[in-house]
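Supplementary Note 3. Input sequence used for the single-chain structure prediction.
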Amino acid sequence: MGSRDELRYKRVLLKLSGEALGGTEGSGIDVNTVRGFAANIAEVARMGVEVAIVCGGGNILRGAEFSELGADRANSDYMGMLATVINALALCDAIEQAGVPARVHTALEIQSVAEPFVRKRAINQLEKGHVVLLAAGTGNPYFSTDTAAALRANELGCEILLKATKVDGVYDSDPKLNSDAKRYSSLSYMDVLSQGLRVMDGTAITLCMENQLPILVFDLFGEGNLKKVVCGEEIGSLIRGSD
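The predicted structure, written as discrete structure tokens, is reproduced below.
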């Protein structure tokens, strides 16, 4: 099972896209995919890693895209926040079925569904070994769940923000379209911003840069990758300050 002494990171924030929860289709909620993620998360939690999670909602509704069809942007973003709550509840249930206690906090008050986000309460739950899922983004329209992940990771004192994707790191171009695409093992925040690399939005990258919070982009679908990350194996692409 491993021990806490083997860990490189002891408190992390995992950012999951909504599309990842949709499995190969990228839409809706794929039960087997969610159970697989939950098993990996439960495994590292039992090792002593304190895990906070921010889920996107793009498998259900992406507010910015919905507003492009003519809907009010703020209202569309609130709809997207509610989509993240659905995803958080699904993942929370799967984590608890995997044998680890989990709690959902929301930036919007939905008292009969989940508890409102309170920083000290969330930290207390992390210290007790509970996985804490942080839903509804920042609670404000015009901010992405990437920015919410950067904000919560800093608020909760996480050592690293783990950006889970379907690829094994950050590339200088789309590896699906360019067979010569170069994968970065490490790069700086400014590299991401100046090259326009589509890792996270600029607000999220800047927030991490200003607080020196490293970001690791890795493939969560790879067997045992989350455990490898928290134990310090060099996989994915690490984004941090200039060497």
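The mean pLDDT is 93. The two ends are 34 Å apart (CA to CA).
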